[in-house]
Amino acid sequence: MDSRKHLYIAVGAGVLLVLIFFGYLAWLNHQGPVLSKSEERDTLTGIPTSISLNPLRDHSSEKAAAAFIRAMKDGKCRNELSGWEHDYRRKYAAFICDSEDKHPLIGWQLVDWEDQPPLRILHYRGKRLNAPGDSTTYSGML
Q1: Phi/psi-derived region of residue 116, left when phi > 0, alpha when psi is between -120 and 50, beta in every other case
Q2: Cα 2 from chain centroid (whole Å)
Q3: What angle do CA 12, 18, 20 make, to 5 degrees?
Q4: Section 119-125 average pLDDT
Q5: Burial of 43 (C-beta count, 10 Å sphere; 0-12/13-18/19+)
Q6: pTM of the full predicted structure?
Q7: For the residues of the chain, what is the DSSP string, one character each?
Q8: With 90 as the cut, is the pLDDT of residue 61 above it?
Q9: Is the pLDDT of residue 15 over 80?
Q10: Which of 33, 47, 39 lies closest to 141 in space, CA to CA?
Q11: Residue 1: is its pLDDT beyond 80?
Q12: Of 51, 82, 105, 137, whose CB has the highest number of CB atoms within 10 Å?
């Protein structure tokens, strides 16, 4: 009889843990993409020093941004910005591609996320070489 009581307690505890886990998943599913942002902000950029992102968020914006940034990193800047060559953004495209040539991007990290419908603004911090072939780096906002 005593072992049966222990079995019921163990099964009850297991069911309770499963219910809590699925409750947490349901709660996460109804939250926005950003769970929290730190109160502390970078004094220069105004970007929070840390953010907690929802693991169940829609990653489509991040995937599109990553494909664009990866192309820039791989030296395909002019291909990516070729549509800008025919409008008012031509000088900006030339400036961006010139900067990419002089300070190659080697890594990036998502540091802030803003939803302002219909816009979604993703802020990235990039790590760049000081010069092509140089081993020294610096970080800055993309």
Answers
A1: beta
A2: 53
A3: 100
A4: 94
A5: exposed
A6: 0.81
A7: -HHHHHHHHHHHHHHHHHHHHHHHHHHHHTS-SEEEE-S-B-TTT--BS-EEE-TTS--HHHHHHHHHHHHHHTT-HHHHTGGGGGSTTHHHHHHHHHHHHHS-EEEEEEEEEEEETTEEEEEEEEEEESSTT---EEEEE-
A8: yes
A9: yes
A10: 47
A11: no
A12: 105
Which pair of tokens denotes residue 60? 């489509």
CB-based burial label for 112 (10 Å; 0-12, 13-18, 19+): buried
pLDDT of amino acid 14: 96
For residues 57 and 33, the answer to whether their CB atoms sit within 8 Å is: yes
Flag whether pLDDT at 2 surpasses 90: no
Scored b (16 or more CB within 10 A) or e, 18-32 reads eeeeeeeeeeeeeee
The tens digit of pLDDT for each residue in 73-96 reads 999 999 999 888 888 888 999 999
- Would residue 75 be called left, alpha or beta, if left means φ above 0 and alpha means ψ between -120 and 50 degrees? left
Domains of the chain by residue range: 59-141
What pLDDT score was predicted for residue 5? Answer: 92
